[in-house]
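INPUT
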Amino acid sequence: MSQPHHRRIGETVLKVDDISLRFGGVRAITGVSFEIRQGEIFSIIGPNGAGKTSMLNVINGFYHPQEGTITYKGTVRRRMRPHEAALTGIARTFQNVALFRGMTTLDNIMTGRLLRMHGPLIRGVHRLGAAGVLLRPIAAGIDFVFDLAFWGPAQREEIRHREVVERIIDFLEIQAIRKVPVGRLPYGLQKRVELGRALAMQPDLLLLDEPMAGMNVEEKEDMSRFVLDVNDEFGTTIALIEHDMGVVMDISDRVVVLDYGRKIAEGKPDEVRSNPDVIKAYLGEAH
Amino acid sequence: MTAADVAPAETFPGLLEHNARIRGARPAIREKDYGIWQTWTWREVHDEVRIMASGLAALGLKRGDTLVIIGDNRPQLYWAMVAAQALGAVPVPVYQDAAANEMQYVLDHAEARFAVVEDQEQVDKLLEIKARCPKLEAVIYRDPRGLRHYPQPFLHSLAKLEAMGREHMKEHPDFYDAEVAKAKGGDTAIMLYTSGTTGQPKGVVLTFDNIVKMARMSVELEGLTDRDETLSYLPMAWVGDNMFSLGQTYVAGFCINCPESTATVMQDLREIGPTYFFAPPPIFQNILTQVLIRIEDASWIKRRLFHSFMKVARRVGSDILTRKPVPLGQRLLYWLGELLVYGPLKNTLGFSRMRLVYTAGEAIGPDIFNFFRSIGVPMKQLYGQTEATVFITVQPHDQVRLDTVGVPCPGVELKLDSNGEVLYRSAGVFKEYFKNPSATAETKTADGWVHTGDAGILDRDGHLKIVDRAKDVGRLKNGALFAPKYLENKLKFFPSIKEAVTFGADRDYATAMISINLDAVGNWAEKRNLPYSSYQELAAKPEVYELIKSGVEQVNRDLAQDKDLAGSQIKRFVLLHKELDADDGELTRTRKVRRRFVAEKYADIVAALYGGKDSVHVEAKVSFEDGRTGTLKADLKIADAAVVTAAPPARALAA
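OUTPUT
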């Protein structure tokens, strides 16, 4: 992976400020702050139980921290629900693959488009703002009939979404499994399909929870290349959690290290690698 | 090759112009992209090639230059070949899975100035060897993904090349046509590097005449028309793909289809349903294995239907295919089978419309061959070489046989020399090996005959039978022909035999060392309640000896049918106490038997096979998978097999 990087890293897109998260008496995260900048690959690492996944869950609104604020695209928020996060352009994958096992690869990735699927009438009515509130049920009803008949605008819309999805399938090189139910796929490919579904949302910020967990070396290499290519081709900002230090150091622009819910280091991979606190946390000295 | 006796249309750019004129709106090539089959008509291909050729000219490609093509089967890569030819440059397709240093040899030897490649993978390989290929000036890539930030000034995207081409066309509107008109049939059309088993690969130079004449011959022979369809999925660097996807397509005007990716070939095959198809035996083997596995997983009704109708198919399918008389009852049953089993099966595989199916490259197993023919897939064998521009012999439709490769194609002369080597002469005979006159002289005689390096025999109907590599063929003491690989292949077609090594050169009779197939024989033993605890014990069972003996005797009966090979029937054989293994040096990594090594390692056994003893004690070193070695001791029984007496072996091979 020696390809030269000339990507533009921009302004801060997400700012996490002094976040603390408790479950009853358990402190999952304590006073953590960091910033993720536009267009970068940002990694959150740390030993087991350090609070990495909790941090991701806070970012996409799944957990609500007791203290601290999150500023996303300039808007400060304390409480947000996951689907609102999705609407504002945050997509994620899960540590344990969370796909619809009985559905095909294609259909799974199509579900990533759901938030962007509106009937043509309801879209028009939404544009009217508050004035159109009364019209909404009627518009939705007519759209529903169009959908049922798969006719006219409904068909055109489906084709438009399918095109986006086909580009993702091409991008991730999963043409051969397009029509295979994901339950029949090996784990490494399921992970790739999950990435595909997140990409289908065309997110601004992509959260990846251990995208390479349980993979063999070759699958890890492939996935690393896809992460880099997503960032490169679409300019997507990526925040990822990963255990494999080799991978993290290779592909990340910046890294933050958590241990016992606290931030112990932050910086470029090389700086973090040589940080004595990080070495201590990872080698498990005198806990 | 005498040049200038053919019209300019006898080149690929000329044929393209012809096709664009007479069937401009017909599909020429398709590629599945973003899940949809994209089509280009002949007129569109003509335009694309013109643009690409102009772009290459603008970049500086000149008459006589070479241009390498690396990638999967993609329309743009095929066009790049014809675009280069239009300028009088020579395209050299390279195997896309070759490692960088293997590519370096070809690029260096061919003195390539330009490369047109598919994607980042190939660009990376070329960047790795660029410093060692001083002649390489420009690399053009089709797929920009991942390449956006590569700073090298000699890298160009195809889009950029096309923009340059359009610009060039504005300034020089007559350039392309003038260049195309300069080409002659005797000019070099293409150079193909053969993956030599020994030494460095050799660059086989083929002229337009070679390819176009052989394509024309085969199109007429098989009745291919512009309504045919084929799938282009075999490597572009292989001569066969050049014949099928370029030669025959441009001559007959039919449409080729490029798969979406190498992993989707089987799905794409089904969607296209080609009428004309080529595959080497391992691909058919894979398809058959897939079918059998899926059938075992199917519901019992489907399973029963499949197995009972396959019985019908095996009985009469091949005869129905060749229009031989079949009793009405059987014919009706077969028709019902077509409705319920064969038809749906062929549809699932994409074989419904096939009317010409070639296989070649190596011996095909009888079960595979018979399976496809019995369900109505008109499979037949051909024998060819890069140096022959593919075609040497083909089986006529009504004379398809398992053990021959057919009769010489129209215009192909064939002869066997005194040691059985096959020689041919035809319009397809290559011009030379590039920059290698000594190899050319060794292979091609002054009067145009080419040594194939294969030993063969002609049967009484004039069918060629390839028996072995000529250098491996020997003779028994009594002068009878001994072709070890031919015997070994025949033995290995029995599922219970995994590997076989035969001996007989300069001996009184032929013998065989056989290692059994543990899965197949183990299954067979379980069904018969034969207990065994190890490979060694199983191989020593008298019942297993009887099983293998029946196979050996079957081979002997087959051999007796053939006057040249009747003398090499296997008189004695032994079942080895272990499988032949590459780790023990007995096989190559590609699972070919290292006959000489085995003969030395098991000299005791060989001595016993010829010594008349009925058992032999062996101690052999074995390597375990974890790297440890141990010694295996065994007493092996030596068995006799019945030999069928036939007419005394004739010294019939002398030409």
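end of record. The radius of gyration of chain A is 21 Å.
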